[in-house]
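Sequence, please.
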Protein backbone atom coordinates (compact mmCIF):
# COMPACT_ATOMS: atom_id res chain seq x y z
CA UNK A 1 0.00 0.00 0.00
CA UNK A 2 1.28 3.48 -0.83
CA UNK A 3 1.50 5.83 2.15
CA UNK A 4 0.49 9.44 1.52
CA UNK A 5 1.59 10.88 4.84
CA UNK A 6 3.90 13.79 4.01
CA UNK A 7 2.96 17.20 2.58
CA UNK A 8 5.02 16.50 -0.57
CA UNK A 9 3.36 13.12 -1.13
CA UNK A 10 -0.10 14.59 -0.56
CA UNK A 11 0.38 17.39 -3.06
CA UNK A 12 1.89 15.09 -5.68
CA UNK A 13 -1.25 12.98 -5.28
CA UNK A 14 -3.40 16.11 -5.57
CA UNK A 15 -1.59 17.19 -8.74
CA UNK A 16 -2.32 13.81 -10.35
CA UNK A 17 -5.98 13.81 -9.28
CA UNK A 18 -6.60 17.43 -10.27
CA UNK A 19 -4.97 16.92 -13.68
CA UNK A 20 -7.23 13.93 -14.30
CA UNK A 21 -10.36 15.84 -13.27
CA UNK A 22 -9.27 18.69 -15.54
CA UNK A 23 -9.22 16.29 -18.52
CA UNK A 24 -12.62 14.84 -17.55
CA UNK A 25 -14.24 18.30 -17.39
CA UNK A 26 -12.34 19.53 -20.43
CA UNK A 27 -13.67 16.66 -22.52
CA UNK A 28 -17.25 17.81 -22.09
CA UNK A 29 -16.31 21.06 -23.88
CA UNK A 30 -13.32 20.31 -26.11
CA UNK A 31 -15.37 18.89 -29.00
CA UNK A 32 -17.67 21.95 -29.25
CA UNK A 33 -15.33 23.97 -31.47
CA UNK A 34 -14.48 20.86 -33.53
CA UNK A 35 -18.12 19.97 -34.30
CA UNK A 36 -18.25 21.59 -37.78
CA UNK A 37 -15.07 19.71 -38.81
CA UNK A 38 -16.39 16.44 -37.35
CA UNK A 39 -19.69 16.90 -39.19
CA UNK A 40 -17.94 17.35 -42.53
CA UNK A 41 -15.46 14.50 -42.00
CA UNK A 42 -17.96 11.85 -40.85
CA UNK A 43 -21.01 13.09 -42.76
CA UNK A 44 -23.13 13.82 -39.68
CA UNK A 45 -26.65 15.15 -40.04
CA UNK A 46 -27.21 18.42 -38.15
CA UNK A 47 -29.51 16.70 -35.64
CA UNK A 48 -27.08 13.86 -34.89
CA UNK A 49 -24.08 16.19 -34.49
CA UNK A 50 -25.31 17.30 -31.05
CA UNK A 51 -24.97 13.71 -29.85
CA UNK A 52 -21.18 13.97 -30.02
CA UNK A 53 -21.58 16.13 -26.90
CA UNK A 54 -24.75 14.54 -25.50
CA UNK A 55 -23.48 10.93 -25.58
CA UNK A 56 -20.66 11.91 -23.20
CA UNK A 57 -22.94 13.91 -20.89
CA UNK A 58 -25.56 11.15 -20.86
CA UNK A 59 -23.32 8.33 -19.65
CA UNK A 60 -21.26 10.60 -17.40
CA UNK A 61 -24.33 11.85 -15.54
CA UNK A 62 -26.09 8.48 -15.51
CA UNK A 63 -23.24 6.39 -14.07
CA UNK A 64 -21.76 8.83 -11.50
CA UNK A 65 -23.60 7.48 -8.45
CA UNK A 66 -22.71 3.93 -9.41
CA UNK A 67 -19.09 4.97 -9.92
CA UNK A 68 -18.96 6.61 -6.50
CA UNK A 69 -20.35 3.57 -4.70
CA UNK A 70 -18.12 1.15 -6.62
CA UNK A 71 -15.14 3.24 -5.51
CA UNK A 72 -16.21 2.95 -1.86
CA UNK A 73 -16.70 -0.82 -2.10
CA UNK A 74 -13.98 -2.01 -4.48
CA UNK A 75 -11.24 0.53 -3.78
CA UNK A 76 -10.97 4.16 -4.87
CA UNK A 77 -7.53 3.89 -6.44
CA UNK A 78 -8.54 0.71 -8.28
CA UNK A 79 -11.69 2.36 -9.76
CA UNK A 80 -9.67 5.48 -10.60
CA UNK A 81 -7.23 3.37 -12.63
CA UNK A 82 -9.96 1.28 -14.29
CA UNK A 83 -11.81 4.47 -15.24
CA UNK A 84 -8.64 5.96 -16.76
CA UNK A 85 -8.08 2.85 -18.89
CA UNK A 86 -11.69 2.94 -20.14
CA UNK A 87 -11.47 6.70 -20.78
CA UNK A 88 -8.17 6.43 -22.68
CA UNK A 89 -9.33 3.46 -24.79
CA UNK A 90 -12.56 5.28 -25.67
CA UNK A 91 -10.60 8.40 -26.65
CA UNK A 92 -8.38 6.34 -28.97
CA UNK A 93 -11.41 4.66 -30.55
CA UNK A 94 -13.11 8.04 -30.98
CA UNK A 95 -10.12 9.54 -32.76
CA UNK A 96 -10.05 6.55 -35.12
CA UNK A 97 -13.82 6.77 -35.83
CA UNK A 98 -14.89 6.22 -39.44
CA UNK A 99 -18.62 6.90 -39.01
CA UNK A 100 -21.05 8.94 -36.94
CA UNK A 101 -22.33 5.89 -35.00
CA UNK A 102 -18.75 4.82 -34.20
CA UNK A 103 -17.87 8.24 -32.77
CA UNK A 104 -21.08 8.54 -30.73
CA UNK A 105 -20.50 5.08 -29.22
CA UNK A 106 -16.89 6.00 -28.35
CA UNK A 107 -18.04 9.23 -26.69
CA UNK A 108 -20.58 7.25 -24.62
CA UNK A 109 -17.79 4.91 -23.48
CA UNK A 110 -15.70 7.98 -22.61
CA UNK A 111 -18.54 9.19 -20.39
CA UNK A 112 -18.60 5.84 -18.60
CA UNK A 113 -14.85 6.07 -17.94
CA UNK A 114 -15.28 9.64 -16.64
CA UNK A 115 -18.09 8.50 -14.32
CA UNK A 116 -15.69 5.98 -12.74
CA UNK A 117 -12.75 8.41 -12.52
CA UNK A 118 -14.41 11.58 -11.21
CA UNK A 119 -16.06 10.45 -7.94
CA UNK A 120 -13.11 8.16 -7.16
CA UNK A 121 -10.68 11.06 -7.59
CA UNK A 122 -12.69 13.47 -5.43
CA UNK A 123 -13.18 10.87 -2.69
CA UNK A 124 -9.40 10.20 -2.67
CA UNK A 125 -8.86 13.95 -2.16
CA UNK A 126 -11.42 13.90 0.68
CA UNK A 127 -9.69 10.96 2.38
CA UNK A 128 -6.13 12.21 1.78
CA UNK A 129 -6.58 15.71 3.24
CA UNK A 130 -7.90 16.29 6.76
CA UNK A 131 -11.17 18.21 7.05
CA UNK A 132 -10.48 21.89 7.70
CA UNK A 133 -7.88 24.29 6.30
CA UNK A 134 -5.82 21.48 4.68
CA UNK A 135 -8.79 20.11 2.75
CA UNK A 136 -9.96 23.63 1.90
CA UNK A 137 -6.62 24.36 0.23
CA UNK A 138 -6.72 21.05 -1.63
CA UNK A 139 -10.28 21.65 -2.83
CA UNK A 140 -9.27 25.17 -3.85
CA UNK A 141 -6.74 23.60 -6.23
CA UNK A 142 -9.36 21.03 -7.30
CA UNK A 143 -11.92 23.77 -7.94
CA UNK A 144 -9.47 25.91 -9.89
CA UNK A 145 -8.46 23.07 -12.18
CA UNK A 146 -11.93 21.55 -12.59
CA UNK A 147 -13.65 24.94 -12.95
CA UNK A 148 -11.26 26.10 -15.66
CA UNK A 149 -11.65 22.85 -17.60
CA UNK A 150 -14.66 24.05 -19.58
CA UNK A 151 -12.96 27.25 -20.74
CA UNK A 152 -9.67 25.49 -21.43
CA UNK A 153 -11.55 22.84 -23.41
CA UNK A 154 -12.81 25.43 -25.88
CA UNK A 155 -9.33 26.99 -26.14
CA UNK A 156 -7.52 23.67 -26.65
CA UNK A 157 -10.24 22.42 -28.99
CA UNK A 158 -9.77 25.46 -31.21
CA UNK A 159 -5.98 25.11 -31.35
CA UNK A 160 -6.00 21.34 -32.00
CA UNK A 161 -8.75 21.53 -34.64
CA UNK A 162 -7.02 24.40 -36.45
CA UNK A 163 -3.53 22.87 -36.60
CA UNK A 164 -3.81 19.08 -36.21
CA UNK A 165 -7.39 18.11 -37.10
CA UNK A 166 -10.50 17.20 -35.12
CA UNK A 167 -9.18 13.71 -34.24
CA UNK A 168 -6.65 15.26 -31.86
CA UNK A 169 -9.31 16.63 -29.51
CA UNK A 170 -9.73 12.92 -28.63
CA UNK A 171 -6.18 11.59 -29.15
CA UNK A 172 -4.80 14.15 -26.67
CA UNK A 173 -6.48 12.24 -23.81
CA UNK A 174 -4.68 8.97 -24.50
CA UNK A 175 -1.13 9.79 -23.29
CA UNK A 176 -2.50 11.77 -20.32
CA UNK A 177 -4.75 8.89 -19.24
CA UNK A 178 -2.05 6.24 -19.66
CA UNK A 179 0.55 8.25 -17.71
CA UNK A 180 -1.96 8.99 -14.92
CA UNK A 181 -2.89 5.28 -14.63
CA UNK A 182 0.80 4.31 -14.43
CA UNK A 183 1.53 6.95 -11.77
CA UNK A 184 -1.50 6.10 -9.61
CA UNK A 185 0.04 3.11 -7.76
CA UNK A 186 3.10 5.22 -6.89
CA UNK A 187 1.29 8.38 -5.77
CA UNK A 188 -2.09 7.29 -4.40
CA UNK A 189 -2.99 5.22 -1.35
CA UNK A 190 -5.75 2.63 -1.69
CA UNK A 191 -8.85 3.14 0.46
CA UNK A 192 -12.34 1.66 0.58
CA UNK A 193 -15.36 1.18 2.81
CA UNK A 194 -14.14 -0.70 5.89
CA UNK A 195 -17.62 -1.91 6.91
CA UNK A 196 -17.84 -5.58 7.71
CA UNK A 197 -20.66 -6.31 5.26
CA UNK A 198 -19.75 -5.80 1.61
CA UNK A 199 -23.07 -6.51 -0.10
CA UNK A 200 -23.70 -4.76 -3.40
CA UNK A 201 -27.05 -3.13 -4.13
CA UNK A 202 -27.65 -4.42 -7.68
CA UNK A 203 -31.29 -3.26 -7.84
CA UNK A 204 -30.38 0.22 -6.67
CA UNK A 205 -27.42 0.46 -9.06
CA UNK A 206 -29.47 -0.61 -12.09
CA UNK A 207 -32.50 1.57 -11.27
CA UNK A 208 -30.62 4.81 -10.48
CA UNK A 209 -28.31 4.43 -13.50
CA UNK A 210 -31.23 3.65 -15.83
CA UNK A 211 -33.40 6.41 -14.32
CA UNK A 212 -30.73 9.12 -14.46
CA UNK A 213 -29.56 8.10 -17.94
CA UNK A 214 -33.14 8.17 -19.27
CA UNK A 215 -33.80 11.51 -17.55
CA UNK A 216 -30.67 13.10 -19.06
CA UNK A 217 -31.54 11.63 -22.48
CA UNK A 218 -35.09 13.02 -22.22
CA UNK A 219 -33.77 16.48 -21.34
CA UNK A 220 -31.17 16.71 -24.11
CA UNK A 221 -33.58 15.26 -26.71
CA UNK A 222 -36.55 17.45 -25.72
CA UNK A 223 -35.49 20.34 -27.96
CA UNK A 224 -35.65 18.13 -31.02
CA UNK A 225 -38.69 16.05 -30.05
CA UNK A 226 -40.59 18.99 -28.50
CA UNK A 227 -41.14 19.63 -24.79
CA UNK A 228 -44.83 18.80 -25.05
CA UNK A 229 -44.42 15.86 -27.43
CA UNK A 230 -45.68 12.38 -26.59
CA UNK A 231 -42.10 11.05 -26.72
CA UNK A 232 -40.80 13.59 -24.16
CA UNK A 233 -43.76 13.15 -21.81
CA UNK A 234 -43.64 9.33 -21.91
CA UNK A 235 -39.86 9.14 -21.46
CA UNK A 236 -39.94 11.77 -18.70
CA UNK A 237 -42.68 9.91 -16.85
CA UNK A 238 -40.82 6.61 -17.27
CA UNK A 239 -37.59 8.10 -15.87
CA UNK A 240 -39.50 9.42 -12.84
CA UNK A 241 -41.10 6.00 -12.27
CA UNK A 242 -37.71 4.26 -12.44
CA UNK A 243 -36.21 6.78 -9.98
CA UNK A 244 -39.23 6.27 -7.69
CA UNK A 245 -38.54 2.53 -7.83
CA UNK A 246 -34.94 3.32 -6.87
CA UNK A 247 -36.18 5.16 -3.75
CA UNK A 248 -38.33 2.15 -2.76
CA UNK A 249 -35.42 -0.24 -3.28
CA UNK A 250 -33.04 1.93 -1.23
CA UNK A 251 -35.45 2.17 1.70
CA UNK A 252 -35.69 -1.63 1.87
CA UNK A 253 -32.07 -2.63 1.23
CA UNK A 254 -29.77 -3.38 4.19
CA UNK A 255 -26.74 -1.84 2.46
CA UNK A 256 -28.23 0.68 -0.01
CA UNK A 257 -26.30 2.33 -2.82
CA UNK A 258 -27.46 5.71 -1.45
CA UNK A 259 -28.31 5.70 2.27
CA UNK A 260 -30.95 8.42 2.46
CA UNK A 261 -29.81 9.16 6.01
CA UNK A 262 -27.07 11.27 4.40
CA UNK A 263 -29.77 13.79 3.38
CA UNK A 264 -30.73 14.31 7.01
CA UNK A 265 -27.62 16.49 7.17
CA UNK A 266 -28.92 19.92 6.24
CA UNK A 267 -25.70 21.19 4.70
CA UNK A 268 -25.16 18.17 2.43
CA UNK A 269 -28.78 18.32 1.27
CA UNK A 270 -28.56 22.07 0.58
CA UNK A 271 -25.16 21.82 -1.11
CA UNK A 272 -26.45 19.29 -3.64
CA UNK A 273 -29.48 21.44 -4.48
CA UNK A 274 -27.25 24.48 -5.02
CA UNK A 275 -24.83 22.34 -7.10
CA UNK A 276 -27.78 21.49 -9.36
CA UNK A 277 -28.45 25.21 -9.90
CA UNK A 278 -24.76 25.95 -10.52
CA UNK A 279 -24.89 23.38 -13.31
CA UNK A 280 -28.14 24.83 -14.67
CA UNK A 281 -26.77 28.39 -14.79
CA UNK A 282 -23.15 27.90 -15.84
CA UNK A 283 -22.79 24.89 -18.16
CA UNK A 284 -24.87 26.55 -20.85
CA UNK A 285 -22.94 29.83 -20.48
CA UNK A 286 -19.96 28.37 -22.38
CA UNK A 287 -22.31 27.05 -25.07
CA UNK A 288 -23.97 30.42 -25.73
CA UNK A 289 -20.78 32.48 -25.50
CA UNK A 290 -19.19 30.24 -28.14
CA UNK A 291 -22.20 30.63 -30.44
CA UNK A 292 -22.31 34.40 -29.93
CA UNK A 293 -18.63 34.85 -30.76
CA UNK A 294 -18.77 32.64 -33.87
CA UNK A 295 -22.25 33.36 -35.23
CA UNK A 296 -22.60 37.06 -34.33
CA UNK A 297 -19.09 38.48 -33.87
CA UNK A 298 -17.76 36.27 -36.70
CA UNK A 299 -14.84 34.71 -34.79
CA UNK A 300 -12.99 31.66 -36.12
CA UNK A 301 -12.74 28.49 -34.02
CA UNK A 302 -9.18 29.38 -33.00
CA UNK A 303 -10.02 32.98 -32.09
CA UNK A 304 -13.02 31.78 -30.07
CA UNK A 305 -10.78 29.40 -28.15
CA UNK A 306 -8.17 32.06 -27.39
CA UNK A 307 -10.92 34.44 -26.24
CA UNK A 308 -11.62 32.05 -23.34
CA UNK A 309 -8.10 32.35 -21.90
CA UNK A 310 -8.84 35.28 -19.51
CA UNK A 311 -11.92 33.44 -18.19
CA UNK A 312 -9.88 30.29 -17.47
CA UNK A 313 -7.15 32.29 -15.68
CA UNK A 314 -9.64 34.21 -13.51
CA UNK A 315 -11.31 30.94 -12.46
CA UNK A 316 -7.93 29.61 -11.29
CA UNK A 317 -7.22 32.69 -9.17
CA UNK A 318 -10.76 33.01 -7.80
CA UNK A 319 -10.84 29.35 -6.75
CA UNK A 320 -7.58 29.88 -4.85
CA UNK A 321 -9.08 32.93 -3.16
CA UNK A 322 -12.24 30.99 -2.34
CA UNK A 323 -10.30 28.32 -0.42
CA UNK A 324 -8.85 31.09 1.79
CA UNK A 325 -12.25 32.77 2.24
CA UNK A 326 -13.88 29.49 3.27
CA UNK A 327 -11.41 29.21 6.15
CA UNK A 328 -11.95 32.83 7.17
CA UNK A 329 -15.68 33.43 6.75
CA UNK A 330 -17.13 29.96 6.09
CA UNK A 331 -18.37 28.10 3.03
CA UNK A 332 -21.93 29.45 3.24
CA UNK A 333 -21.12 33.16 2.83
CA UNK A 334 -18.45 32.39 0.21
CA UNK A 335 -20.97 30.34 -1.78
CA UNK A 336 -23.60 33.10 -1.63
CA UNK A 337 -21.02 35.66 -2.85
CA UNK A 338 -20.11 33.30 -5.71
CA UNK A 339 -23.71 32.82 -6.79
CA UNK A 340 -24.28 36.60 -6.78
CA UNK A 341 -21.20 37.13 -8.98
CA UNK A 342 -22.53 34.50 -11.41
CA UNK A 343 -25.91 36.27 -11.39
CA UNK A 344 -24.22 39.60 -12.19
CA UNK A 345 -22.15 38.08 -15.00
CA UNK A 346 -25.17 36.45 -16.64
CA UNK A 347 -27.25 39.62 -16.29
CA UNK A 348 -24.44 41.51 -18.04
CA UNK A 349 -24.38 38.85 -20.78
CA UNK A 350 -28.14 39.35 -21.27
CA UNK A 351 -27.28 42.77 -22.76
CA UNK A 352 -25.05 41.44 -25.59
CA UNK A 353 -25.22 43.46 -28.80
CA UNK A 354 -25.94 42.17 -32.29
CA UNK A 355 -24.32 45.00 -34.22
CA UNK A 356 -21.43 46.94 -32.80
CA UNK A 357 -20.77 44.20 -30.27
CA UNK A 358 -17.20 44.02 -28.98
CA UNK A 359 -15.11 41.45 -27.18
CA UNK A 360 -14.22 43.88 -24.39
CA UNK A 361 -17.73 45.15 -23.69
CA UNK A 362 -19.88 42.13 -24.52
CA UNK A 363 -17.67 39.15 -23.62
CA UNK A 364 -14.62 39.92 -21.48
CA UNK A 365 -16.17 41.93 -18.62
CA UNK A 366 -19.17 39.62 -17.98
CA UNK A 367 -16.88 36.59 -18.42
CA UNK A 368 -14.65 37.87 -15.62
CA UNK A 369 -17.64 38.41 -13.32
CA UNK A 370 -18.93 34.90 -14.04
CA UNK A 371 -15.44 33.41 -13.65
CA UNK A 372 -15.02 35.00 -10.21
CA UNK A 373 -18.40 33.58 -9.29
CA UNK A 374 -17.58 30.11 -10.59
CA UNK A 375 -14.43 29.87 -8.47
CA UNK A 376 -16.20 31.30 -5.42
CA UNK A 377 -19.14 28.89 -5.87
CA UNK A 378 -17.51 25.66 -7.03
CA UNK A 379 -15.02 25.40 -4.14
CA UNK A 380 -17.41 26.03 -1.20
CA UNK A 381 -20.22 23.89 -2.65
CA UNK A 382 -17.78 20.98 -2.96
CA UNK A 383 -16.52 21.53 0.59
CA UNK A 384 -20.08 21.76 1.90
CA UNK A 385 -21.08 18.59 0.02
CA UNK A 386 -18.42 16.51 1.85
CA UNK A 387 -18.50 18.29 5.23
CA UNK A 388 -18.96 15.88 8.12
CA UNK A 389 -19.21 12.85 5.81
CA UNK A 390 -17.81 9.57 7.12
CA UNK A 391 -14.64 8.36 5.33
CA UNK A 392 -16.46 5.21 4.15
CA UNK A 393 -19.07 7.39 2.39
CA UNK A 394 -16.61 9.69 0.58
CA UNK A 395 -17.37 8.10 -2.80
CA UNK A 396 -21.10 8.46 -2.21
CA UNK A 397 -20.80 12.18 -1.32
CA UNK A 398 -18.50 12.81 -4.30
CA UNK A 399 -20.84 10.98 -6.67
CA UNK A 400 -23.86 12.92 -5.39
CA UNK A 401 -22.38 16.40 -5.91
CA UNK A 402 -20.97 15.45 -9.33
CA UNK A 403 -24.34 14.00 -10.33
CA UNK A 404 -26.16 17.16 -9.20
CA UNK A 405 -23.87 19.32 -11.35
CA UNK A 406 -24.09 17.09 -14.44
CA UNK A 407 -27.87 16.64 -14.31
CA UNK A 408 -28.20 20.37 -13.63
CA UNK A 409 -26.02 21.10 -16.66
CA UNK A 410 -28.14 18.88 -18.92
CA UNK A 411 -31.39 20.34 -17.58
CA UNK A 412 -30.17 23.94 -17.80
CA UNK A 413 -28.83 23.55 -21.32
CA UNK A 414 -32.06 21.93 -22.53
CA UNK A 415 -34.21 24.70 -20.98
CA UNK A 416 -32.02 27.60 -22.13
CA UNK A 417 -31.61 26.26 -25.69
CA UNK A 418 -35.42 25.99 -25.86
CA UNK A 419 -35.72 29.60 -24.60
CA UNK A 420 -33.12 30.89 -27.08
CA UNK A 421 -34.56 29.01 -30.05
CA UNK A 422 -38.11 30.08 -29.17
CA UNK A 423 -37.15 33.77 -29.00
CA UNK A 424 -35.13 33.57 -32.22
CA UNK A 425 -38.01 31.86 -34.06
CA UNK A 426 -40.48 34.48 -32.77
CA UNK A 427 -38.19 37.29 -33.90
CA UNK A 428 -37.97 35.83 -37.40
CA UNK A 429 -41.76 35.32 -37.49
CA UNK A 430 -42.21 38.96 -36.47
CA UNK A 431 -40.24 40.08 -39.51
CA UNK A 432 -36.65 40.38 -38.26
CA UNK A 433 -34.56 39.76 -41.38
CA UNK A 434 -31.11 40.06 -39.82
CA UNK A 435 -30.07 36.59 -38.57
CA UNK A 436 -27.52 38.06 -36.14
CA UNK A 437 -30.21 40.19 -34.49
CA UNK A 438 -32.63 37.24 -34.17
CA UNK A 439 -29.90 35.01 -32.71
CA UNK A 440 -28.80 37.70 -30.26
CA UNK A 441 -32.38 38.18 -29.05
CA UNK A 442 -32.44 34.47 -28.22
CA UNK A 443 -29.06 34.58 -26.47
CA UNK A 444 -30.19 37.54 -24.36
CA UNK A 445 -33.26 35.71 -23.07
CA UNK A 446 -31.26 32.55 -22.37
CA UNK A 447 -28.69 34.48 -20.32
CA UNK A 448 -31.48 36.22 -18.42
CA UNK A 449 -33.11 32.92 -17.43
CA UNK A 450 -29.66 31.57 -16.49
CA UNK A 451 -29.21 34.58 -14.20
CA UNK A 452 -32.52 33.63 -12.57
CA UNK A 453 -31.17 30.12 -11.87
CA UNK A 454 -28.02 31.60 -10.32
CA UNK A 455 -29.97 34.03 -8.13
CA UNK A 456 -32.21 31.17 -6.98
CA UNK A 457 -29.00 29.34 -6.04
CA UNK A 458 -27.90 32.30 -3.90
CA UNK A 459 -31.27 32.38 -2.10
CA UNK A 460 -31.26 28.61 -1.51
CA UNK A 461 -27.65 28.68 -0.30
CA UNK A 462 -28.71 31.26 2.28
CA UNK A 463 -31.72 29.23 3.44
CA UNK A 464 -30.80 25.55 2.97
CA UNK A 465 -27.16 25.43 4.15
CA UNK A 466 -26.52 25.42 7.89
CA UNK A 467 -24.86 28.59 9.20
CA UNK A 468 -23.72 26.63 12.24
CA UNK A 469 -21.96 24.01 10.10
CA UNK A 470 -20.23 26.73 8.08
CA UNK A 471 -19.19 28.66 11.20
CA UNK A 472 -17.91 25.56 13.01
CA UNK A 473 -16.06 24.40 9.89
CA UNK A 474 -14.30 27.78 9.57
CA UNK A 475 -13.45 27.92 13.28
CA UNK A 476 -12.10 24.35 13.23
CA UNK A 477 -10.06 25.11 10.10
CA UNK A 478 -8.49 28.19 11.71
CA UNK A 479 -7.61 26.14 14.83
CA UNK A 480 -6.26 23.29 12.71
CA UNK A 481 -8.95 20.89 13.93
CA UNK A 482 -11.08 18.60 11.77
CA UNK A 483 -14.13 18.07 13.95
CA UNK A 484 -17.44 19.27 12.55
CA UNK A 485 -20.75 17.81 13.74
CA UNK A 486 -23.22 18.40 10.89
CA UNK A 487 -26.71 19.67 11.60
CA UNK A 488 -29.52 17.20 10.94
CA UNK A 489 -32.78 18.72 9.83
Amino acid sequence: MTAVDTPRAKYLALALLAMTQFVVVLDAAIVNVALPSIGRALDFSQDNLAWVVNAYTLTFGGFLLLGGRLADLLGRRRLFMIGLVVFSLASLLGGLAQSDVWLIAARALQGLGAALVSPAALSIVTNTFAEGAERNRALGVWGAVAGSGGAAGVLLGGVLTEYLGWEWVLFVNVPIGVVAALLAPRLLAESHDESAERSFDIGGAVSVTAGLSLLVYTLVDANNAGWGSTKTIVLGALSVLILAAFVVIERRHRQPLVPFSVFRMKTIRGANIVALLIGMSLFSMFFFISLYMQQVLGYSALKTGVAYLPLALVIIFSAGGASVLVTRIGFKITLIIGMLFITAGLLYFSQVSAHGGTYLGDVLVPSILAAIGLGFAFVPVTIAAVTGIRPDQAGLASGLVNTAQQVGGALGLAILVAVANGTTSSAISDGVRDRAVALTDGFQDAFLVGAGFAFAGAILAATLISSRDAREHAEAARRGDAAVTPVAA
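DSSP finds 19 helices and no strands in the chain.
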